[in-house]
Amino acid sequence: xxxxxxxxSLSDLEKLYRCPGKFKFEDHSVASHSFKVTKIAQFMGTVxxxxxxxxxWKSLYEKALNHDYPELFTGDIKTPVKYASDELHxxxxxVEDQMTKKFIYREFPKEYQEIYxxxxxxxxxxxxEGMILAVSDKVDLLYESFGEIQKxxxxxxxxxxxEESLKTILQFKDLACVQxxxxxxxxxxxNEKFIEHSDLSFITESIVDGxxxx
Amino acid sequence: xxxxxxxxSLSDLEKLYRCPGKFKFEDHSVASHSFKVTKIAQFMGTVxxxxxxxxxWKSLYEKALNHDYPELFTGDIKTPVKYASDELHxxxxxVEDQMTKKFIYREFPKEYQEIYxxxxxxxxxxxxEGMILAVSDKVDLLYESFGEIQKxxxxxxxxxxxEESLKTILQFKDLACVQxxxxxxxxxxxNEKFIEHSDLSFITESIVDGxxxx
Amino acid sequence: xxxxxxxxSLSDLEKLYRCPGKFKFEDHSVASHSFKVTKIAQFMGTVxxxxxxxxxWKSLYEKALNHDYPELFTGDIKTPVKYASDELHxxxxxVEDQMTKKFIYREFPKEYQEIYxxxxxxxxxxxxEGMILAVSDKVDLLYESFGEIQKxxxxxxxxxxxEESLKTILQFKDLACVQxxxxxxxxxxxNEKFIEHSDLSFITESIVDGxxxx
Amino acid sequence: xxxxxxxxSLSDLEKLYRCPGKFKFEDHSVASHSFKVTKIAQFMGTVxxxxxxxxxWKSLYEKALNHDYPELFTGDIKTPVKYASDELHxxxxxVEDQMTKKFIYREFPKEYQEIYxxxxxxxxxxxxEGMILAVSDKVDLLYESFGEIQKxxxxxxxxxxxEESLKTILQFKDLACVQxxxxxxxxxxxNEKFIEHSDLSFITESIVDGxxxx
Amino acid sequence: xxxxxxxxSLSDLEKLYRCPGKFKFEDHSVASHSFKVTKIAQFMGTVxxxxxxxxxWKSLYEKALNHDYPELFTGDIKTPVKYASDELHxxxxxVEDQMTKKFIYREFPKEYQEIYxxxxxxxxxxxxEGMILAVSDKVDLLYESFGEIQKxxxxxxxxxxxEESLKTILQFKDLACVQxxxxxxxxxxxNEKFIEHSDLSFITESIVDGxxxx
Amino acid sequence: xxxxxxxxSLSDLEKLYRCPGKFKFEDHSVASHSFKVTKIAQFMGTVxxxxxxxxxWKSLYEKALNHDYPELFTGDIKTPVKYASDELHxxxxxVEDQMTKKFIYREFPKEYQEIYxxxxxxxxxxxxEGMILAVSDKVDLLYESFGEIQKxxxxxxxxxxxEESLKTILQFKDLACVQxxxxxxxxxxxNEKFIEHSDLSFITESIVDGxxxx
Lengths: 214, 214, 214, 214, 214, 214
Fold this sequence. Notes:
Six copies of one chain form a homohexamer. Chain A is built from ten helices and no strands. The first copy, chain A, has helices spanning 3-14, 30-50, 57-66, 71-74, 86-107, 110-119, 128-151, 156-170, 176-191, 199-212. Chain A is globular and about 75 Å long. Chains in contact: A-B, A-C, A-D, A-E, B-C, B-D, B-F, C-E, C-F, D-E, D-F, E-F. Chains A, B, C, D, E, F: This is HD domain-containing protein.
């Protein structure tokens, strides 16, 4: 029993990869993803505050940091949508839930159990903080799938993920931070220029020729 | 729909790692594991035949080759025993089962569905072939955990796996191939000598000194 | 001496990569490849049976499982065709052959040596099973090279491999399973749609706009 | 200019490894480390609260999340102590500082610049939150070096890191959370049992013999 | 103290990656890069000799082999140009310089210190050998960036690197070896044909149809 | 045809790993190994010079840089000694030789063919430079095997390699540089202290207790 087991489990999250076997260009661990989601949530919360909302920062950080901790027990399972179902998804949630509770009762000292039961509870409720988490989680997923598509991963799964993420974000379009994302971030992401192999000859010629005159 | 999806799924099994995040020295994909189990089963079947048993080779190969295919849909989940339970284990089997069926009905032409429903069924029954599979699966797991322990992985999970594998193998100790394994293979595995850092000075001196005389 | 050395060698095949240094997107170990070839051969044999041929399953599985085992001793050498020659290829086969024999005589108990000399013999003979192996080996190679080309690997080696594989498959075009592959699998492989970076703006707009109305 | 560059930079932190070339068993990215430090700080703050201190959670989370962000610009440089010096260390801090500022002025909209200049400032000040960060940063480093030593990494650098981390933690021994760590976590970490190769024969015999009677 | 530390440091250079986190397709260690630069310099020197120049081979090899050794102490930092500055660059050079000296005085026997101080000095001076080094270093960088662009890495950093490398090479366009590179090597690099996914259907059809007639 | 093919081949050497599948802790590419051997040869040559020998530096560098280039065509094959033979070894050398020649005649311009035929010839002759190469090649191999043994790789292959390397070095014990290696480098390598898991409790206690008094 002990917090040592909990601290050690953090390092297991570093080695747990999302969508195992699917990302070809950049793997993402559950630990890294949680970090990125929390950083995105931090920015999103800041935008909300600028627009007059009151953010419960303690709650927002707790939700974002811990939202995927239960994957410690089951891994990250991303079955192609066509073979999955809501029923199966519920089965999994149930499994994760029970294992998380077992873990807390076994490893945490009594006086901290309630706090951590609360922290590891599903955070995507309908508070402002729950909604910011739901959005931030999908923003990171959008970036992850964009990264693969942009580098040429032909796996249709990533288009599915991209579309699903964007649709979820749009469900929260009344939030100021979602408006900010749609208007100020997404266009820059899509406008990313990138060099083609075929441009290289042109670039090379320009440089070599431009240099001749000098 | 199509066999193309099935062929493509084989390559997904190459990228699905067993006990994700736990092996520190040698990762094992589900594809590689299935190969090794089939090769071990081939030897075990040969021993059985030498001792007078009749082996249904077609059945043995089918069982061994396909025994972990359903992990395609859920990954390989190896939750430390202390947080798991039989009930949870059953939940997972159910999930895998349903997804496998969905996959077959969706991707296989009608005339091959029955055959593959049969092939992807749990193979560890009480036929001779089912028992050889159960043994071979654990022999490979024993080797995998031995490989980690021997190289210094301190994770207690591997001792658990080692013990559990050996105990399962012993449940079939009436099989000639299990006797062969216990008497002729296991001792060699355990006797593997290995050099210690501290031996190097001695070895070096012997070589350098032995050479002086020459 | 001992079967332990043989079992241990299976794990070496997990770490032996095909065309070392050439695959940029997905590495393939000899163990994984052998697994995939055996699974493909299983399907191909099933098609043959459906079309009235008699398949010797024991032989087919033995051939497929063991066909690359001798690479244990020499690695997988895929020299660009232009620098190689038949003569060199023969030299290599000879080396592999001799080493395989040495291994069997050294590690296998006497009563199993004949069986394994037979199993590790070149399996691509002109029996139905030998032909199914030749086809299945190339089908997997076709998929491996397709996977690289599709993800954007510009190395011309993969076009060479793709073409050579397809040509070899076509040499067996009288087999029912090759007809099945050409008519029902290959077109699906080639028709794989994949998203381009440039499609993302369009998809994004559709989703965002479609959502506005709601 | 844009927040898109900032979001993209988060993914760069996933690929930036700590002490490049030194960890042999488990690599740690700057993103993963930041996640673990924040999770540890969360627990440490909770202990402080239980002991009557008042924790500014917003500040604690900001400090922990962002404390290594500037490594984006310089990488994580861990020169063996014997070749480094305070002067060199200061030079680096200066470089990181300037680049961080350039980045904020270039990429952040004006109304968020002040907030992020503050967030990316050195967080280890003498507030309670600054001290918890200093401790949590070293607790994770202690775990990282312990992980390597325990698995057999002979590099003396890790002993240096272990000792230096522990000494830094002890500078804050008046904190309740440091007392908790020293009394309730550290002993469990050090007591981690681990199986030796030489134990395997004994374990195996016990299992095999124990089974004979049955 | 000792040359053992120096020999051991060579292996650290194997694990030090260039532009950490940026290359997606092929990582390049400082050791590998140094090897390639030395090999390129060997060819460039040979061209110079063919054209009548006198090459001091001892000096050329020393410069090429050692030119990145000081990165041992700081890693390879490739900050996107827009956030860097000459001043920062000078700061880094200073740091590397001081650490290299400390290392030599600490680890090398007195009689070899002068020789290695000289060998680890910045080699890109205006001797013929210094110029060949400057060119060869950039030729390898050009190839490294070309490799990424050609495989589809969309990171604009690689276009920056490609352009900057080519411009530096052109500064030495009066050298015979640069003329050779521009006229005989660069065009072949740019002309590399590569197969597109969309070509595969055509190739496949040609082969399948061509075969029908046979 | 072209030098571009030659430059490109250098990058293939970066991806060609030595003893594929055997090193568990640190992989070594042919490119990295060639770099280290050349650096070691540089030091060894320097020692020889200090002791009055005349070193042909141009020749030494050429031999060291190029000594493993032909592995480009066959990979690095390190078959366990017990299954190999001199005859097989000769077969391989022959294959490498012929492919290297084919490559030079195909890719190099006529005026450089003679030079490169010479450069890619076996360099370990009985000149001083040939002997320094033979020694330096084995010194690096000694370090590579030491690195694995020291970290706990139990594979007996590494003891074989260690012993064989040392024995080869001793064949050149009349060289001043070998004397230097035996007297001044090897003892430091063997004396490398390293921390054991069991030392950690002691170290920790010392630090914690030492701190109590303060």
